[in-house]
Amino acid sequence: MTPAMIDDTTLYAVLAPFAAAVVAPALTRWFKHNAAWPLALVPALIFLHFTGFIEPVSQGERFVASMAWAPSYGVNFSVYVDGLSTLFALLISGIGTFIILYAGGYLKGHPQQGRFFSFLFMFMGAMLGLVLCNNLISLFIFWELTSVTSFLLIGFDHLRAASRRAAIQALVVTGGGGLALLAGFILIISSTGEIEMSVLLASPDIIKDSGLYLPIFLLVLGGAFTKSAQFPFHFWLPNAMEAPTPVSAYLHSATMVKAGVYMLMRTQPLLGGTPEWTTVLPIFGGLTLLVGTILAVRQTDLKLMLAYTTVASLGLLVMLTGTSHEKALEGAVLYLLAHSLFKGALFMVAGTIDHEAGTRDITKLGGLRAAMPITCIAAALAALSMAGLPPFIGFIAKEVLYYGTTGWLELFGLPLTITAVVGNALMLVIAAAVAIKPFYGPKVDTPKHAHEGPVLLFAGPVVLSVLGLGLAVIAHTTGELFVGPTLSSLMGEPTTVELHLWPTYIIGNIPLYLSLVTIGLGIVLFTQIDRLRSLIAGILTAIGWGPDKGFDQFVAGIVGFSGWITRRLQSGKMQTYMILTFIFAGLAVLLPGYLTNSFPAMPKLPEYRFYEWGILLIAVLGLIAVLIAKTRLTAIVSLGVQGFAVALIFMMFGAPDLSFTQFMVETLSVVILALVMTRLNLSPSDHRPLTAALGTGLVAVAVGLGLSLTLLAITQQPFDRQLSDFFTEYSRSIAHGRNIVNVILVDFRGIDTLGEIAVVVLAGLCVLALIRIRTKPDKPAEAADQGATQARPAEAR
Length: 797
Prior knowledge:
It is a multi-pass membrane protein. This protein has 797 residues and is an all-alpha fold. It is built from 32 helices and three strands. Strands 1-2-3 form a three-stranded mixed sheet. Helix 4 (83-106) runs parallel beside helix 15, helix 13 (275-298) runs parallel beside helix 18 and helix 19 (455-473) packs across helix 20 (475-491).
């Protein structure tokens, strides 16, 4: 089905958060502590706009809208609305509404709250553009913009070294992956000739048949794995918890970290189903699931526990997407929805506990149920969904994904099922720890007097956790409106989904049995959580080195290598700079011809007249004089002979104005250089060892030969008279000048000429500065003191 064209309203919806980012600081100053309410209207209205697509998208319709951006390069600001992009847009704007409200309460009274709102809205707009953009280049721009804006949000508390390190780490890892993604997009465009995602999706085998599938697959994977924190790039996400809790709840649970998963799901019809896809993704996804859950059990900080389980959840999503199996993909979509709800709620709960009790360490928390009853209920509901217990959306997602792993009769079917069971059991352990440890048991004295937070702090957790229950109760509708259309996008064809809250049969229901095993294993592990935490901590201590430390070593190595190469190349000697410049210039003009075997044919030697031989002889004599000159001043004067020979050639071929200009330039150059050489205290001789002379001579010959061959290649091409005819026709009628060369310099390319004049003036000023340098001999100390005494005014003596 061809996508239907829609008006530009959706384009404006993507741009609306950027407009809100501009006015957010002013609104924060005007409304003081109530700025979150009017600001939250922006994502709320965006959410309402995208709810209008739910019904038509569920019926299989797709929509596109486009606005010219850089049409000469084929780059448009265009959107593609289908099930996948609609689901993500609803999550981004819906959860974003409560994040704005939550930030208003969490950062109440903060002097930089307006700046924080501005950064948050910029990220929201970048994320909306990422999931909605149809054009590959504009998609990449928004992709990198999420990295830049997350850098600003993670490093919001920039006075803390830990925040700055976490922000730089996230930017380096995700930004590097973004460059890999750009390379993949360029290969897609060059191999297919298409730049719009909707066109590519209409021909799903176009990349697989292009012959560049493997490099495209690896490059897209590089972008997705770094953004979604897949092992071994998982370390940046937990470190990003240095950001304020609203950032953690939004960027690193429901939006940014899902960008890599979105990219894999979006390209599933294009790249999925191959042996490479169904091998690499399940292996790395399963490994990330286990690593994330194991590291989560080790933690005692609520945010870090949730952060590592986010890493694990992303691994689970990648693992399921990598199967390319319909039921596993259905489980991935369901779990994507469930995770966004319960993890966003739990992050906000963790922030509220920290905000009202003064700590996030579960070993220092307990008995908060009476002091924070609403937060306790929200935490319980969200944790039940995270644990995969009925009657929550997390339970349905777990059941469906088990259907997918057990029904995938490939090599990794059984290992993936075992991995999913172990990972989900450890998820239950963390969910129970987050929901039970802070709120139940004996009351513990906390750094602050714990009490329930304001409505801005508990509105988001309550709504998101209740949604996890409500969407499960209406499971059939959830499947029709959200899961089915999204699954159709992943499969590349219309697909129907039928969800049930309760299993339709018991006997022989393997996914149900696996759920019971998961719950039982999770309960057993939770009862031994302290012992398990100590065991994992001991193993990790014994291992010692990890990717996080490796990142620091990598950065230190890059800095050290940069310093070494800088000391070698930036030695402070002009001679070194000139030699390096000419070496690379010679390579630039010689290597392409050598590698492509496209050197020009050597022309026949023309029959010169006697005066032409004379000009050539003058040039050769000038060159010999430069080479055998005993002093630099003699070499400079001899060098001017070359310029005079060129000026004579210009005159001989009927260009007296160029000849006159060349005579003037050479004369002035010799005079100025001679003047500088005589005024500066430089060695008058220039004797170098034979090896140095041979080396510089080789570089000079290479550059001269390369330029000569380049000019020969140009002159042997057919002459294109388009520019010549244009200037001949319009120099008189437009510029009112008969001298075509002067008209070109002054009118047609007057800005270039102005730039050249500016360069000459700057060079003249530098020469003047060198001339004015004076070397003053040091005075003896006594004489200096005496002179200072004599110069002192009489009043001061």
